[in-house]
Amino acid sequence: MTPSMVFTQNGGTLSLREIPQHAPDRFAQALFSALSGGWRVVSYFGVQADDGVRLYCLLSFKSHATIGVMSTLVTGKSFYSLTDEAPQLHLFEREIAEQFSLSLEGHPWPKPVRFAPALGSLPGVTPHRPPTIGIMDFYRVEGDEVHEVAVGPVHAGIIEPGHFRFQCFGEEVMHLEVSLGYQHRGVERMMQGRPGERMRKLAETMAGDTTIGHGTAYAMIVEALTSTAPPARAQAVRGIALELERLANHTGDLGAISGDVGYLPTASFCGRIRGDFLNMTAGICGSRFGRDLVVPGGVAFDLSADGASQLADRIRTARDEVTNAIDLLWDTPSVLARLEGTGVVSEQTALELGLVGPAARASGLNRDIRRDHPFGIYSMSQIPVETGKTGDVYARTMVRWLEMEKSLDFIEEQLAQLPGGATRRAVGEVSAECLAVALTEGWRGEVCHVALTDARGAFSRYKVTDPSFHNWSGLAMALRGGQISDFPLCNKSFNLSYCGVDL
Amino acid sequence: MIKAVLARIKQGHRTMAYPKKPLPLPERFRGYPELKGSLCPADCRLCADACPVGAIGCDKGLSVDLGKCLFCAECSAACPHGAISYSGDHSLAANRREDLVIREGEERRLARALDKKMLSIFGRSLKFRSVVAGGCGACEADSNVLSTIGWDLGRFGLQFVASPRHADALWVTGPVTENMREALLLTYQAIPAPKLVIACGACAINGGPFIGSSEVHDGVDGLIPVDLYIPGCPPHPLTILDGLLRLLDRLE
Ligand code: SF4
Ligand code: SF4
């Protein structure tokens, strides 16, 4: 009997031929037994094949830093959903159905994800035309005093578009349905072909506030496929940039959470300090979002000795100011009272839904790619993982703050001991007929890129999973039984990406 | 309370002096390009081939389309003759799409002020309704920044508002995905006339990194008329503010 999975590591490659191909029932069995043995799904997607649609599933086993891969072939017009037994698959399956014009049997929630044209279909079958965005049956609760609140796609502030339907009983939210797709740009379709500058720019703009997180994952894919090891100095600069990205976003969100409970001092201080972190990134590469810093083979900008010591000074000042601003929160009982017990996601729910990043850690799940599947500088230098217990807005706020402290420590440590040498190596030819996988821990959580190459070394499929893809249903669960007026607060504590999902 | 007061003293007054005093930008900031087409050998297309979005023209002399440009500087890295470099000049916004295509030796065509009548209507108070029509979220982040204390957009009478009915202008970011086209047009219609349209970022101007995707419209041109184009991916907040202040005749 073929083994159920073939194994690789973060930043590793496999020959497509090595990947076990199972019949659908054996695939389901192998998947369930992996999940019950402590594996979890990092990616699950379809690929157009000559004889049908091939499904690939990538799983992570954290204590061995191992990634397992297996596949199956769908030859009929439908495939059977495994969501009932494995809820973490629910959105992946909907996506596969939509992208490959398949129907999904037995799924509790078989709805469009992006209202997007199909990427492919079974041989000889015309791909589905996409449904009109927003037109579908929303989940409805009927009864006296039950009412529905619909919000979006255009929201009140300068925010990405999405549509939310709340089923409410008075103030109480019984259910929130999140419907996205408005930002859909066709990124995965455009990521087919030869790797190059265009692909790198697309990777950086999959979710612009995670330019370093996605940019690094893309670079790791190309490095894996060309067997390039970036120099140590480049790895350190990437790590600094990734932590600066985390600091900027966490600071902005803690400020926004504070603003949403009407506590303005922290809100306005953090609004400014976030900019200081962005400007530190711009000090390294000219762009506040870290555009064009990470390139396959290393980084495009070096940090001079002067630059490093200036950055260290700026970090020291920022640490002082941001600590001062955030301490006000922990000292203000009325703020804490609004955060505690609001928007609870239990550990069980987080586990079943497969949440990642600070949202998962705040619910007690101890997962972080920087430690579990270390990449780049994190294989040399560890960052402690922070978790919470209560799964509420308070825990998500606290975990973010604790992570900020660790990021500040990490950056100071890296700046004090920057390795010497080059910052970039040339990349060679891309291997043909391979699968490469790269995971990074962006500020929202796990960023996963998977690439399949064809016989000429071009991407035949490039699959991206932004952390938001795992986490949007966590936000919906956080609202259950809560007050509709808590929505903005819950929303800020997750701060999920719309474009990262819509791709 | 006392802690909040102490924190206020510690954090200090932080609104920048710009436009009275210049704002220093990082050394590696990439702004207005400098072209030296005279250095280009005949038939050299190295820069154009390196550009991921086709922003460079080599045919009738060297040109850069700032409406498409992502300011990645791949073109200047690819050019062995030093014909393209990116300066630290943040002023980039223009009123007309064609003014964004720059060529060596041509006069700079930066955004001009609105006419007298429009200035009398909008010169002291201009409210924007933002529609995010795709993109990556970075243009939005740097538009939002303008409302923080450091930039304090309100001191110029500029503000982002929650309803198109309260707005004088539409603020577009993103390449206009097919899935946002209708919402964008409906929001535009809901703004009372006279109204302005601002296209912020490479996406909104011409599709940005997503140019050519079958699922986007390559920007707002052709869908609604635009009064101010602000280049960049994303534009630096200073580039945005510079464009707005030029439009309102607030920069000498
Ligand atoms: S800087 Fe602009 S013109 Fe030059 S390669 Fe990049 S996108 Fe093209
Ligand atoms: S122009 Fe660039 S920064 Fe702005 S939304 Fe588009 S991709 Fe993002």
For the structure shown, list the relevant keywords.
heterodimer; A: 503 residues; alpha+beta; 5-stranded mixed sheet; globular; B: 252 residues; alpha/beta; Rossmann fold; 5-stranded parallel sheet; 3-stranded antiparallel sheet; 8 helices; 10 strands; 15% strand; binds iron/sulfur cluster
In short:
The complex is a heterodimer of chains A (about 500) and B (about 250). With about 500 residues, chain A is of the alpha+beta class. Helices cover about 40% and strands about 20% of the residues of chain A.
Query: How are the strands of the largest sheet of chain B arranged?
Result: 7-6-8-9-10
The CATH class of the domain at 116-248 in chain B, by name, is: Alpha Beta
Compute the separation of the termini of chain B in Å.
43 Å
Can you tell me the residue ranges of chain B where pLDDT is under 50 for at least 5 consecutive residues?
A: none
Mean pLDDT of chain A comes to: 96
Describe the oligomeric state of these chains in a short phrase: heterodimer
Overall geometry of chain A: globular
Radius of gyration of chain A: 22 Å
Query: How does the major sheet of chain A shape up?
Result: 5 strands, mixed
Largest interface, chains and sizes: A-B, 66 and 65 residues
Structural category of chain A is alpha+beta
Q: What would you call the shape of chain B?
A: globular
Strand content of chain A: 15-25%
The helix-strand sequence of chain B is: HEHEEHEEHEHEEHEHEH
Query: What kind of sheet is the major sheet of chain B?
Result: 5 strands, parallel
β-strand amount of chain B: 5-15%
Walkthrough of the structure:
The complex is a heterodimer of chains A (503) and B (252). Chain A has 503 residues and is an alpha+beta fold. Chain A has 16 helices and 16 strands. Chain A has helices at 24-36, 90-99, 187-190, 197-204, 211-226, 232-260, 264-285, 305-330, 333-339, 347-353, 357-362, 369-372, 393-416, 467-479, 487-494, 499-502, and strands spanning 6-8, 13-15, 21-22, 40-49, 52-61, 66-74, 78-80, 103-105, 146-151, 163-169, 172-179, 294-295, 298-299, 434-442, 445-453, 459-465. In chain A, strands 1, 3, 4, 5 and 6 form a 5-stranded mixed β-sheet that branches. A 4-stranded antiparallel β-sheet of chain A has the order 2-14-15-16. A 3-stranded antiparallel β-sheet of chain A has the order 9-10-11. The mean pLDDT of chain A is 96. Chain B is an alpha/beta fold and 252 residues long. Chain B has a domain at 116-248: Rossmann fold. Chain B has helices at 2-11, 46-50, 74-78, 116-122, 138-144, 178-190, 202-206, 237-247, and strands spanning 33-35, 56-57, 63-65, 84-86, 101-103, 126-132, 158-160, 169-173, 196-200, 228-230. In chain B, the strands form 3 sheets. Chain B has a 5-stranded parallel β-sheet with strand order 7-6-8-9-10. In chain B, helix 6 (178-190) links the parallel strand 8 and strand 9. The radius of gyration of chain B is 19 Å and the shape is globular. The relative contact order of chain B is 0.17. The interface between A and B is large, with 66 and 65 residues. Chain B: Its cofactor is [4Fe-4S] cluster. Chain B: Belongs to the FrhG family. Belongs to the complex I 20 kDa subunit family.
